[in-house]
UniProtKB/TrEMBL annotation:
Residues 48-139 form the Methyltransferase domain. One of its GO terms (molecular function) is methyltransferase activity. It comes from Natronomonas salsuginis. SUPFAM superfamilies: S-adenosyl-L-methionine-dependent methyltransferases. It comes from the Archaea. Pfam families: Methyltransf_25. This is Class I SAM-dependent methyltransferase.
Length: 236
């Protein structure tokens, strides 16, 4: 997987949340969690798999809301951060973390109600193969996000240490249709790229985020968005 060695470094895992979701990065965290909850709700008693769960931001949140959830990642260092979060939140006994390869999910067909992945497909060298595995183990729903090719994300993409794959809207839709999925809903956001928000304090980020949302609600907002959230269903 692209950037796999970088992603699994202990120092990357230890600093992952602080570097991305402190200061102005809090706006990213809130929006991503809202996108997951909007798409997956209601989650109580739902059997869910999070692919590439990282430090467990979403896994722990959904377990706290009653989901029967497994968080899976290739990085043991990231998973250990997730276990610490689960203990701190009091949900360590109600969820599972496991190390596995997203290209060969260790579950039988139709095992979960929902399978989702956030911050994953920009690292995937074989997106078709990965999403086919997600479809295989899901009974109904597959949810994921993409970073968009024709957006401000492309300005700094070349400098990222792990690299990043960007998708056009056409490419993402072809990925969905080619995997036997039907698009239920899609949302677009963040005209300004994530890297901008991570680089500034919360109080500076707040007015920029308000302007970002306002521009996103205009007719050109979807075309400028750097992130898309794709909510799909297994085709009957």
């Amino acid at each position: 997987m692209k950037g796999q060695e970088w992603y699994q470094e202990n120092d990357v895992a230890n600093a992952y949340d602080d570097k991305r979701f402190s200061g102005g990065g809090r706006f990213i965290d809130r929006r991503e969690k809202a996108a997951v909850l909007d798409a997956l709700a209601p989650v109580e008693d739902k059997r869910i798999l999070e692919v590439a769960c990282g430090t467990g931001r979403f896994t722990v949140m959904l377990a706290d809301r009653g989901a029967n959830i497994v968080g899976m990642d290739i990085s043991e260092a990231m998973l250990e951060q997730g276990r610490r979060k689960a203990r701190a939140a009091g949900v360590a006994e109600t969820l599972s973390f496991m190390q596995a390869d997203a290209g060969r999910l260790p579950f039988p067909d139709d095992h979960f109600d929902t399978v989702f992945a956030m911050r994953f497909f920009h690292l995937a060298p074989d997106p078709e193969g990965f999403i086919e595995e997600m479809c295989r183990v899901s009974k109904s729903q597959v949810f994921f996000d993409t970073f968009n090719r024709y957006s401000t994300r492309s300005i700094y993409n070349w400098a990222l240490p792990m690299g990043s794959r960007l998708y056009s809207g056409r490419e993402a839709r072809e990925l969905i249709v080619g995997s036997g999925l039907e698009l239920a809903d899609v949302a677009h956001d963040f005209v300004l790229p994530y890297g901008f928000y991570r680089a500034i304090p919360d109080w500076i980020a707040r007015p920029f985020r308000a302007a970002d949302r306002a521009l996103g609600r205009t007719p050109i907002g979807d075309h400028l968005a750097s992130v898309s959230y794709w909510d799909t269903r297994i085709r009957e």
